[in-house]
Write a structure and sequence with these properties.
single chain; four-stranded antiparallel sheet; 205 residues; alpha+beta
Length: 205
């Protein structure tokens, strides 16, 4: 419970009012399947969820990641629009651990708490900015997309696999790996398993 409260401090004041169920998913398993509603609301403790959507042409569109301490707005929409068939999928991009509350607890307790609603609002704005940014860069050459992504990061460390970065930038893992290897040869980045280190901030950013 300490980990849960560290990541989501708002839940501490509701201690005893909510019933949590703890689950694990392995990379590639789905939390939310297209046209199916979520059974509840997750609080991510470790790992990363990826949210995607199918457009009218059948293309898969990357929407946003969900990291520990962030919220799954697809699960919230499932509860609010229970009759809607959402063309959204939430997949474990890495192995994940998460706590889970039922839709009844979400509706009757969490959504009646003003502080929780404010947190959801701010997180939703962050996700909206992320989706707008993804649309902005999707037609750029991959070199520019990588540079833009590094420029918006707030750390010299990018904790993502090549596959995760490829999905974020809407391209293939092979393309990302090729360009990152080129940047590594040029001394701009250092590549480790699950981590990219920016070596020359002034050039990369």
């Amino acid at each position: 419970m300490n980990r849960l409260y560290e990541l989501y401090p708002i839940l501490r004041k509701l201690d005893g009012k909510l019933t949590y169920h703890f689950y694990q998913l392995t990379s590639g398993e789905k939390f939310k399947v297209i046209n199916e509603c979520c059974a509840g609301f997750p609080f991510l403790l470790s790992g990363m969820f990826l949210t995607t959507q199918i457009n009218d042409e059948g293309d898969v569109l990357y929407l946003y990641h969900i990291a520990p301490g962030q919220y799954c707005h697809s699960a919230l929409k499932c509860m609010l629009c229970s009759d809607a068939e959402l063309q959204v999928e939430v997949v474990a991009q890495t192995d994940v651990d998460f706590a889970f509350v039922t839709n009844d607890d979400l509706e009757n307790i969490l959504l009646k708490d003003p502080e929780f609603l404010l947190e959801i609002y701010h997180d939703c704005l962050d996700k909206l900015e992320q989706m707008m940014y993804n649309q902005l860069i999707k037609d750029m050459p991959i070199e520019q997309r990588l540079m833009q992504y590094f420029k918006q990061s707030k750390s010299k460390y990018i904790y993502m696999t090549h596959q995760m970065l490829a999905e974020t930038l809407q391209t293939s893992r092979e393309v990302i790996s090729r360009h990152l290897k080129k940047m590594e040869r040029e001394g701009l980045v250092s590549l480790e398993r699950g981590r990219i280190t920016l070596l020359k901030d002034e050039e990369v950013r």
